[in-house]
Amino acid sequence: MLALIEPGSTTAIVFLSICLVLVLVFEFSNGFHDTANAVATVIYTHSLKAQVAVVWSGVWNFLGVMLGGIAVAYALVELIPPDALSPPDGGIAAGMLAAIFISALGWNVATWLFGIPNSSSHALIGALVGIGVEDSLRNGRPLGQGVDWHQVWSVLLSLLVSPILGFGLAMAAFWLLKRTVHDQHLYEPPKEEKPPIWWMRGILILTCTGVSFAHGTNDGQKSIGLIMLTIIGLFPASYALNTAMTGDELHRIAGDMPTAADLIGRYGDDRRQLGVTAAQAIGAGFGRASAGTALPEPERPALRNDMNLVLAELKTAGEAKGIAAPDKARAHEIHETLMGTAQYVPWWVRVLSAVCLGAGTMIGYKRIVTTLGERLGKQHLAPAQGAAAEIVAAGLIGGAGFSGFPVSTTHVVTGGIAGTMVGSGAGIQPATLKRIAAAWVLTLPATVAISAGIFYLLS
């Protein structure tokens, strides 16, 4: 039904505005759902009062979004098929956006209501894959070509490996702490509202700060990518392409397009001819840009649509079986150069994402904190366990945010706390572990199905 909406009409603007609200609400829910992992240790060990901890964490989440990169944002955007991003009939991608936001947000809220520390990243990736699955089925394409499984597996692998690393490294860190520091009170659950010794309290506050900042650099990028998709639909002439690109830079890209067309023609998939035509259109459009000036506004939306297709086909070509090493390197080089015209974020988008994530951090944290502090291990969380888990989490999440790997704060912190529980000999509560494992297993198929179903109905 949304395919009938005229692009640029009042109805289109209203619907896309609703999509923008939905993505901001999703980022808000990300704050109170995922960031509870950052404040759980300082609150539960009485290192900081709850109100102080969530405000402090919210501030550092804000700074993480503002100072982080954008590699994660666009790694997720590349999971969406180009014709869903830019419908070939000239329509708007409102159905795609609504399906993503509703499915990911709904799953986030549902797991939060049950106090299950589920991953917002996991839910979002499932929603994105659902778009690719439905788009393939609707257009009669094999799932192997309609969904970028290489990118999906790459993202899922980082989600799978990160909690395992969190578990193992946190257990090792706890073991090392226990071998070097012999204050028994640090290894016992708090019996009263009294903070731990000053230096351990300082470590816990510092690690809470680090995890909050790292969460902002990683999870904040995911909403940045989604906000960019929405505002490109709302204001394509203004935001379809990076206006900082000058005519000289665009001319250099135009010079690469004949090579891109050749590579796509030889190694592309069932849409190679569309990719060749799109590369030729980009070459002509960018070649017309005046030296030292940005591309004219009326040309940007159509060229952005062509770019989405060329980027997808270049990626397919670079991963094709039998491609020669020089051709593979050249396809990757042109892909990365062309991404420079699409991979950008206006400063106000960062602020919008940062405000929503920071505000969400300050609300609704109690359910997840209780689960991590009391219901994960067979004993309540001790200060040394919280410190070991958070040190590891800050390093893993921060490194992933700047390297472009979308990891889950929830999975890393939960894995880390579980590792310290095993390292202490306390063990893990089977019932809680089963609930978390069930949510982890069900999140992907559930959000894929919900997203695909909503996209089918709306498109």
Automatic annotation (TrEMBL):
It catalyses: phosphate(in) + H(+)(in) = phosphate(out) + H(+)(out). InterPro entries: Phos_transporter. Keywords: Cell membrane, Membrane, Phosphate transport, Symport, Transmembrane, Transmembrane helix, Transport. The chain crosses the membrane at residues 12-33, 53-80, 92-114, 152-177, 198-217, 223-242, 437-458. It comes from the Bacteria. Belongs to the inorganic phosphate transporter (PiT) (TC 2.A.20) family. Pit subfamily. PANTHER family: LOW-AFFINITY INORGANIC PHOSPHATE TRANSPORTER PITA-RELATED, PHOSPHATE TRANSPORTER. This is Phosphate transporter. It comes from Lichenibacterium ramalinae.
